[in-house]
Design goal:
Elements lengths: L1 H10 L4 E8 L6 E5 L12 E4 L2 E8 L3 E8 L2 E3 L7 E3 L5 E6 L1
Length: about 100
């Protein structure tokens, strides 16, 4: 009984769509990696929109997420992120709070 109740509760969690946008006219490949995809950049390529504009839409449950962009193989913070936290490696991760 308890398992069914927990499943129903989980199904009621409203997923939220967010859009990450990035600009870099020199970038050839841009990915996003974070706690929402086990830091696996290959699972979340950003879409090139032309003129150096890149986007990625994510659908996530409410929560706290940390992420970084991988631009042509280089990991970096999202310059448009509203918040960042230290990642313990002397650098910072961008933050999404839903």
């Amino acid at each position: 009984m308890q398992i069914r109740k927990d499943r129903r509760k989980a199904q009621r969690v409203a997923l939220q769509k967010i859009r990450i946008e990035f600009r870099d006219s020199q970038a050839r490949d841009v990915y996003i990696a974070g706690t929402f995809n086990d830091w696996s950049p290959g699972s979340a390529p950003m879409l090139a929109m032309g003129e150096g504009r890149w986007i990625k839409e994510l659908v996530l449950p409410p929560g706290h997420y940390e992420y970084r962009l991988v631009v042509d193989g280089r990991w970096q913070c999202d310059p448009s992120a509203s918040a960042q936290v230290s990642n313990g490696f002397g650098e910072f991760n961008s933050v999404i709070n839903l």
